[in-house]
């Protein structure tokens, strides 16, 4: 049976699988789509995925767990949006999200996706951990609860619960304190930002999460938000306004760059002289912010910033977006995008792979370990590199 309610049913046929969506900007590699890089099958490329969705929407193909995994393997990295030469390019990721909307409505979800969404609904985070543990990351830090300070520091589920991301969140809080910034945190009152929930197709839950956060922010008089994660940055800038939540939103690297220009932060010498940087998709391709992280890194005395062959708009996604850092539909192979990216970073000769996203931090550090590169390449969040 055809799905008449599918939003893009009159446009999706316009994709004729030309293949441009697989490439980086210099046309050097056909594997810039993370799912295609992992599986090397046309069905996992953007064009192949859209054709499968079209067949399913038109009733020519029955849903299966395998089809669900192909659709949900899209990490929403926006490389296809950057590379597609056709007029509907801005809608490509949304065409996939709309298919996920239909799968949610019909209750047709791969098991890891269902678990992710249930955990957010029941516990306020994708890990299924107790809400009372959300403040553990700052247990011995003198971080003030938000009470009309200039900024709310939104740590997010990754910084609150993931053990590796917690270290970077602590470093960020200490750096902001040392800079004399007026900020507070929500602690146990914080909940998931809902960015991945929206991209996983659960509109109702995404709206509920957004409304809950907006109500909390407005009740406390929040005006400015600095986010630890680019995913939260995207949620607050691009998703929350449609529910009435309009705030001044900064990613932490943007704020650090400004504080460094003012002299409020004076980093010590570099942990290692040669550093390469991995662009997070939700800061770069989604919001065109490539300068701020590099400005922060280049302001560290002794740093030599070396770029990977694929960088900025052409950076290969680590594969953690759209919930894949948790549901992990792209792992388990030397061709997983995170492992490819770790090898690319090592090839620069850098001693440090710098990141500005908690998902990238955990994904790439795990990849470096599996690749046996730990003695050559350390993965560090930018907040850790400038911590006083």
From TrEMBL:
One function term, GO molecular function aspect: 4 iron, 4 sulfur cluster binding
The keyword Oxidoreductase is assigned to this record: yes
Residues in 4Fe-4S ferredoxin-type domain copies: 12-86
Organism whose genome encodes this protein: Desulfatitalea alkaliphila
Pfam families for the chain: CCG (PF02754), Fer4_8 (PF13183)
Name under which the protein is recorded: (Fe-S)-binding protein
InterPro entries for the chain: 4Fe4S_Fe-S-bd (IPR017896), Cys_rich_dom (IPR004017), HdrC_iron-sulfur_subunit (IPR051460), Helical_ferredxn (IPR009051)
Keywords recorded for this protein, A-Z: 4Fe-4S, Iron, Iron-sulfur, Metal-binding, Oxidoreductase
Annotated Cysteine-rich domain residues: 162-234, 275-364
Lineage: Bacteria, Pseudomonadati, Thermodesulfobacteriota, Desulfobacteria, Desulfobacterales
Entry GO terms, CC: plasma membrane
């Amino acid at each position: 049976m055809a799905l008449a309610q599918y939003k893009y049913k009159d446009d999706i046929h316009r994709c004729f699988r030309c293949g441009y969506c697989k490439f980086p900007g210099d046309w050097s590699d056909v594997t810039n789509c993370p799912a295609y890089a992992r599986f090397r099958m046309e069905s996992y490329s953007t064009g192949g995925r859209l054709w499968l969705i079209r067949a399913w929407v038109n009733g020519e193909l029955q849903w299966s767990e395998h089809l669900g995994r192909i659709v949900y393997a899209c990490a929403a990295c926006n490389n296809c949006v950057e590379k597609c030469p056709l007029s509907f390019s801005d809608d490509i990721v949304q065409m996939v999200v709309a298919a996920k909307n239909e799968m949610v409505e019909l209750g047709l979800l791969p098991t890891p996706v269902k678990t992710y969404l249930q955990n957010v609904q029941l516990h306020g985070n994708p890990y299924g951990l107790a809400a009372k543990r959300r403040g553990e990351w700052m247990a011995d830090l003198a971080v003030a609860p938000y009470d009309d300070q200039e900024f709310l520091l939104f740590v997010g589920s990754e910084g609150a619960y993931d053990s590796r991301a917690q270290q970077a969140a602590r470093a960020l809080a200490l750096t902001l304190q040392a800079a004399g910034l007026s900020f507070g945190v929500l602690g146990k009152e914080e909940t998931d930002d809902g960015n991945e929930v929206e991209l996983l197709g659960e509109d109702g839950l995404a709206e509920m999460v957004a409304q809950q956060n907006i109500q909390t922010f407005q009740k406390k008089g929040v005006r400015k938000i600095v986010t630890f994660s680019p995913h939260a940055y995207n949620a607050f800038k691009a998703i929350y306004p449609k529910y009435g939540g309009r705030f001044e939103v900064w990613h932490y690297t943007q704020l650090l760059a400004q504080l460094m220009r003012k002299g409020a932060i004076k980093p010590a010498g570099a942990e290692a002289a040669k550093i390469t940087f991995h662009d997070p998709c939700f800061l770069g391709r989604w919001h065109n912010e490539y300068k701020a992280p590099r400005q922060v890194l280049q302001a560290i005395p002794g740093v030599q910033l070396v770029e990977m062959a694929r960088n900025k708009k052409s950076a290969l996604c680590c594969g953690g977006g759209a919930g894949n850092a948790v549901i992990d539909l792209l792992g388990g192979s030397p061709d997983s995008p995170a492992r490819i990216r770790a090898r690319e970073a090592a090839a620069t000769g850098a001693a440090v792979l710098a990141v500005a996203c908690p998902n990238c931090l955990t994904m790439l550090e795990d990849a470096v370990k599996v690749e046996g590169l730990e003695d050559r390449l350390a993965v560090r969040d930018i907040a850790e590199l400038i911590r006083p």
